[in-house]
Amino acid sequence: MKCDVNIITGRTIDQGANIDSKLSSDYFNACARCEIGAEDLKTLGLSEGSHVKVSTRFGSVVVSLALCDGNPEGVAFIPMGPWANTVVNPDTHGCGMPGFKGILGSLEPTDEKPLDLKALMSLYRE
Amino acid sequence: MEITDAICSFCGSLCDDLTVKVEDNKIIDVKRACRLGASKMLGHERINSPMIRNEAGILEEASFDSAIDKASQILLHAKRPLLYGWASTSCEAQSKGVLLGEILGAVVDSTASVCHGPTTLGVQEKGLPTASLGQIKNRADLIIFWGCNPIHAHPRHMSRYSGYLPGFFLDRGRQNRKFVTVDVRMTETAAISDEFLQIEQGSDYVVLSALRALVNGKDDLVPDVVCGVSKEDLVRLSGMMRSCRFGAFFFGMGLTQSKGRYKNIDCALSLTNDLNTQTKFVITPLRGHYNVTGFGQVCSWQTGFPAVDLSRGAPYYNPGEMSANDLLMRDEVDASLIVASDPAAHFPSTSVRNLAKMPLIQIDPYANATTEIADVVIPTAIVGVETEGTAYRMDGLSLRLRKLVDSDYPSDEEILDKIIKKVSRKGDVC
């Protein structure tokens, strides 16, 4: 089932610890994920580790789901990185800063798998 | 060999108390570093050799001379080059970058534009009532963390500057201090705070304005609930702020990247100014990369601005028009030089798409997302590990990073110097 969310992106210690090894599986595991609260997990009918398609009017991306008890209902957190940036708002509101937080979007179950970094970046060279 | 008092070149805390053990020119142990610092010091896989992308679209190994030649040709033929990054290199390399920008008539922008760029705009409007981290350690009995999670992003900040360590006037450390976290979700920092105010996403400006009203005695203007926070909680927080002896307000991307952007900072600075009519209060942005503060300093010394468009023959600054993402979104950039950063991993997809379709030169110790779209890749030494250099801590304190091991890689500064010599014309000051 689909779930509407307000998406925020940001740093995590796992993302930071692998920032200089972005081609590693540790970086992929740290960033190709979406953290939501228990209520939203229930709405989606999915469990931790399931794949989910995150869609906004700026793009979509497939990532893995993770439970974060600290998230209020309707707030999804995606660690900063190439996966998150597929769905963020490019508008800088006249001050140079794109919209990395507060992006309205939705989550839905998918059979697709998250792309690794090389595959994701190869889309930009097409 | 043990090297004491080594400085960590990861985040803006620039922890300067590390003990590094070196054997056979390799760092084998780091004491006192956090997970972020230790992972950097102990090393990751490196780019082995310069590379140039061939006609088949494959990066091929090349010599430093040919990569520098190719990079110089790309920059010389560009009409609207973007020189971007700079947050994870030395002030000396940053200075060369600004000089290169002047010679080329380029836009020079740093990672601050997707980090604390809005903070700079706020500070330009209201000023920055701040203090050194040492003053905060020694004096602050109230710490506010707003829209930031230092346990993840600056793991030793609390133990070194803002929380647990006894200060000169606070001999019981954590017991002398109150922590308050304001965030949209319960973070690890919020979990160890004395108070946590959970606000609705994007409501920072409204909540800060309500606090300003309360601090200024305009209680009647504040409704019973403000964006998810009860008036009672806000009254209690404003009381804590007014009654502390020395308050310190730290903030992060929760303010700079949410709705309102630089106006959130403007409001937080105004609140700090209001509080200074009643007690002592300071405010400090939690800067991310270890020398992003340094770029703002260097670019301001050399051009008058913390990011600059030099295409007019005189420095020009107008974030929102000449910032990296605005230029890329408008598809204005026709070549880019990316130094010590990874915009392909940290820019919105529209910007990355436009970055990828034009010639891109990368100067960096590590392969990253930008390498995947780069046309010329030049590997360099890691500042603070393999080469020395100056960096600025988040509070504006300059520190000299040391060389801990030898390296065959040239420094960013050396590579930039060679490019400058290739692209400069008679009469250029280089």
What does this structure look like?
Chain B: Its EC number is 1.2.7.12. Chain B: This is Formylmethanofuran dehydrogenase subunit B. Chain B: Pfam families: Molybdopterin. Chain B: Keywords: Oxidoreductase. The complex is a heterodimer of chains A (126) and B (430). Chain A is 20% helix and 33% strand. Chain A has 126 residues and is α/β, with parallel strands linked by helices. Chain A has a single domain, classed as Barwin-like endoglucanases (Beta Barrel). In chain A, strands 2-4-3-6-1-5 form a six-stranded mixed β-sheet. In chain A, strand 3 and strand 4 (59-67) form a beta hairpin. Chain A is globular. By secondary structure, chain B is of the alpha/beta class. Chain B has two domains: 47-113 and 290-428, Rossmann fold, CATH 3.40.50; 117-285, 3-Layer(aba) Sandwich (Dimethylsulfoxide Reductase, domain 2). An eight-stranded mixed β-sheet of chain B has the order 5-4-18-17-16-6-7-15, covered by helices on one side. In chain B, strand 6 (81-85), helix 3 (91-104) and strand 7 form a beta-alpha-beta unit. In chain B, helix 3 (91-104) crosses helix 13 (292-303), helix 9 crosses helix 10 (231-243) and helix 9 (204-215) runs parallel beside helix 12. The two termini of chain B are 39 Å apart. The interface between A and B is large, with 50 and 67 residues.
Quick recap:
Chain A has 126 residues and is an alpha/beta fold.
List keywords for this structure.
heterodimer, A: 126 residues, alpha/beta, Barwin-like endoglucanases, 6-stranded mixed sheet, 6 strands, 33% strand, B: 430 residues, Rossmann fold, Dimethylsulfoxide Reductase, domain 2, 2 domains, 8-stranded mixed sheet, 5-stranded parallel sheet, 17 helices, Formylmethanofuran dehydrogenase subunit B (chain B), Prok_molybdopt-oxidoreductase (chain B), formylmethanofuran dehydrogenase activity (chain B), NADH dehydrogenase activity (chain B), Mopterin_OxRdtase (chain B)
